[in-house]
Write a structure and sequence with these properties.
Shape: globular
CATH architecture: 3-Layer(aba) Sandwich
Helix content: 40-55%
Radius of gyration: 14 Å
Strand content: 15-25%
Structural class: alpha/beta
Order of helices and strands: EHEHEHEHEHH
């Protein structure tokens, strides 16, 4: 069960997507995480631009809502030097290599199919742990 108190979390994740997905995606993760939810990428970008300290240390972006919105967010987010080291993961509609490659070219650190995330939460947990613990 994720924790939602940022003060006691090992990692704070910004989730951009449907709020109803939060428990399903993060519910079985062993890490003590706090999730800051944003309904859309513009709200997340505004929060990062206007907050000190930053609202999160890791971003999980649901691209199943709008690939164009994901492209705009990645372009704008990665254009800021201060945000370049913040890991951004993208959940895509499927394992479509072309879409995933486009997201990676725009600055995502990795891309995973949302159906895989929902079916096997352990894989997302391992990816986040690998990125967070390796740096």
């Amino acid at each position: 069960m994720p924790i939602f108190n940022k003060e006691h979390a090992d990692l704070v994740i910004a989730h951009i997507g449907d709020k109803s997905d939060i428990q399903q995606i993060f519910g079985l993760m062993p890490q003590k995480i706090a999730v800051v939810h944003f309904d859309d990428s513009n709200a997340c970008l505004d929060s990062f631009n206007n907050s000190d300290p930053r609202p999160a240390e890791f971003i999980l972006l649901d691209a199943t809502r709008s690939a164009e919105d994901t492209d705009r967010f990645l372009t704008a987010f990665r254009s800021k030097t201060a945000f370049k080291k913040i890991p951004v993961s993208v959940m895509a509609e499927s394992d479509d290599e072309e879409s995933c490659q486009r997201f990676l070219n725009l600055g995502a650190n990795f891309c995973i199919a949302k159906l895989d995330v929902l079916a096997d939460r352990g894989s997302l947990s391992q990816i986040i742990t690998d990125y967070w613990m390796s740096g």
